[in-house]
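debug: dumping io for the single-chain case to check the tokenizer round-trip. Nothing else runs in this session.
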Amino acid sequence: MSSKVGIGIIGYGYWGPNYARVFNELGDSSVTAICDAQAERRQRASSRLPGVHVCASAEELLKRPDVDAVIISTPASTHFELAQLALVADRHVIIEKPIATEIEHCVILRDLADKSGLVLMVAHTFLYNPGVRKLRECVKSVAFGRLYYMHSTRTNLGPIRGDVNAIWDLAPHDISIFNYVIDEEPQWASAVGSHSLGNAREDVGFITLGYTKDVIANIHVSWADPNKVRRVVVVGSKQRLVFDDLNDLERVRIFEKGVAVGETDAVSFGDFKLLIRDGDIISPKVEYSEPLRNQATDFIEAIRRHRQPVSDGATGEAVVRTLKAIEASMAQRGKAVEVAACSTAWR
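debug: decoded output
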């Protein structure tokens, strides 16, 4: 490998130009090739990045000796095939979320990467968001107390995808955030969805996940809501944490409020008095840094140091396991489905 890691980008739609920018800004990487099936996008790439090889096929891009790593920024249904091609061609890979749409495909990609000593990263970009990292830090502190539950809202009016529903498009963000914040993956999932826009796929979803110690998490996703919301709430016995990705001034807020058990003359078990505990609202300082740039930096460092990135293949597979359980639950109108059962169903 040369002094700089050569980056090839497959898919120059929304995320492709952003990836090109951040990898060219890093000191030890540069974009050397871009491919896209659409002529208009190839023209745009050529005009923006003179000197970068632009082509129409992934096969052509992967034959180039100046491509050490590949960014796959294409529709979810194409992720497995393209990532498999790249790994077989001995290239490090970043895949946009989800890593694949089948658990078996996740396992194949992970095995390929492990056997070849390649870095396989899934672009769960919120794991590189300073606000989410602050959430994790707070939850692990003594001041937070015991975790009660979590909930998130991720809504907007579109954009509507053509190959996956709103759950597969939006919920991976929140599943990955919850798993990262508490270092667990859910044991079961229950979900319902609807076709509010008359779409062929669900455009609204309500999801409940069950973790250990009776911790539950709820996710609401929608392509049909006129209000854009990107909010995660984590509630503990001593603090309530709010992460609002659209609030640049107060990205994280800590509410030092809660409910405490007071003295009582109760004569039976469970008959006790609850007292509302008031406290301060704190906006901790969160040093902003661009999540996509943080993710790119982790990827390059993982390649250089021969280590796993924060959002590795195992992280991506865990999210897909949960999505498959959600999918199975929706087919049964919200019946709870064990996540582990989905991970072994294909074997």
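debug: round-trip ok. The domain at 5-124+291-309 is CATH 3.40.50.720 (Rossmann fold).
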